Amino acid sequence: MTEKPTPRITAINKPFWDGCNQGRLMLQRCAAPECRKHVFYPRVCCPHCGHGALDWVEASGRGRILTYTEIHRPGHDAFLGEVPFLFIAVGLDEDPTIHSRLAGPAADNAGLIGRPVKVVFHQSTERQKLPFFALAG
Asked: Phi first, then psi: what are they for 74, rounded to 5°?
């Protein structure tokens, strides 16, 4: 059996991955008073205004499905036993878009666009949980 790949954890993204392991979806937010926009993926400065200070805040974990695709041939052999699954783009309530998996099967894929979702944390490897999203309501 092939081991699942793990995220490359750095000083910049460590608070995000630590938050996942604690069951918390952490996002960066610009510290500039005139901006204060949420940021995802983790980075060193705000992509909206260029300010160099970003704070970590807990996100609501809620959003809506923007688009999706059904995966039949995963990019890594360790996921062969999990196909098919839905890879989704979620527009978070805080504004950033995050890409992830839909937790569990969807009864009807045709009606997924715009559906509300909430984050759930999936134990991917012994040491790392990943943020997946489940249909809400």
From this structure: -70, 160
Kindly tell me the burial class for residue 61, based on how many C-beta atoms sit within 10 Å of its own C-beta (0-12, 13-18, 19 or more): buried
Using one digit for the tens of pLDDT, what is the confidence trace for 73-124?
999 999 999 999 999 999 999 999 999 999 987 667 778 999 999 999 999 9
User: What residue type is assigned to position 45 of the chain?
Assistant: C
Round to whole Å and give the CA distance between 105 and 115: 14
CA distances 10 to 7, 13, 16, 19, 78, Å, are 9, 5, 10, 14, 23
Full residue range of the structural domain in which residue 27 is found: 14-135
HSE of 9, CA atoms in CB hemisphere, 13 A: 14
Q: Has residue 28 been placed in a domain?
A: yes
What are the C-alpha distances in Å from 109 to residues 42, 86, 105?
30, 9, 9
Confidence tier at 42 by pLDDT (50, 70, 90): very high
Q: Tell me what percent of the residues of the chain surpass a pLDDT of 70.
A: 97
Number of domains in the chain: 1
